[in-house]
Amino acid sequence: MRTIQVTHSQKPSSRNPKTAATAHPFDGVALAAGTDEKSAQPTGLDDRGKAANDAQVSALFRCIEQLHAGSDWGRFLDAGTGLNSALWSTALPTKRWVGVTGATDHARQVTERIGPRLRPQDRLLVGNWVDPALLQGEVFDTVLADYLVGAVEGFSPYFQPHLFKRLLPHVGRHLYVVGLDPYIVGDAPTEAARIVREIGRLRDACLLLADEGPYREYPAEWVVDSLQGAGFTVTHAKRFPNRYREKWVHSQLDMALRRLPKIEDQKLVAALRSKIEEIRARGVVLCSQEDGLRHGADYVIACTVTAS
Ligand SMILES: C[S@@+](CC[C@H](N)C(=O)[O-])C[C@H]1O[C@@H](n2cnc3c(N)ncnc32)[C@H](O)[C@@H]1O
Q: CA spacing 20 to 30 A to 231: which of 3, 155, 261, 286?
């Protein structure tokens, strides 16, 4: 296995203070910690599992642009499309653009925003990667999997270990994976970390009680390993520390609130409602005291198809 040295970005973001860079060595790939922060959470149109602030969204896409510098974007596949990735990628000088989503509502939302940008050769498809016929025989120079891994749980549970093998025949040259390290499991060493974890757990509990499947995020190391096992060579991997804002606290807890009418047990509903508001109050205060909740990270992983 090739050893890859990933540079540690020390560039402070204009909106966010610098965070100490920490390397996470893994299987020969050092996952550099960047200094640009973002925020996230994952499902469908509900803002679960994707960047929760615009600055971070741009930091991740700027990172991909830098990694890609000097190469043509060519034929472009947005393999898990949504507003952010579609808006960014349809503005690139591509030869052709194809977006795939598993949800009709998602497709409608994306079409409303980027419809006028689509050229005759571009397409937005509703399909599922478990379907072998989806884009069969079509190859793209650049493929983007933007918060796709975590969302797979909502569309094809247990398919995550097969996802990158499924995408491999469609990748002509470059695959970029954007994801979110899980924050509802694992260490929570600070008060901010504990409240982010608490919010995520309560949100997911409400989704489950309302008969919905929460997203399931995977750590960057799992993704690197899975990519290598599927036949990709990882060339760069970088983490971007997250800072969750008050807007995120409200969006996640409101998502939980909206599920309550689907829960039958009224005693449980009352207890959940009171818990949601209690955590909201604490979250808002802590956000203001600490200028956001600093916890966890998103990541960008770049890879190419391993030569056979
Ligand atoms: C969290 S959203 C992606 C965020 C998006 N890139 C953005 O900019 O907002 C995940 C996307 O992956 C799609 N998706 C998840 N699992 C899928 C599957 N098995 N097949 C096809 N699309 C899937 C979802 O339908 C959705 O469009």
A: 155
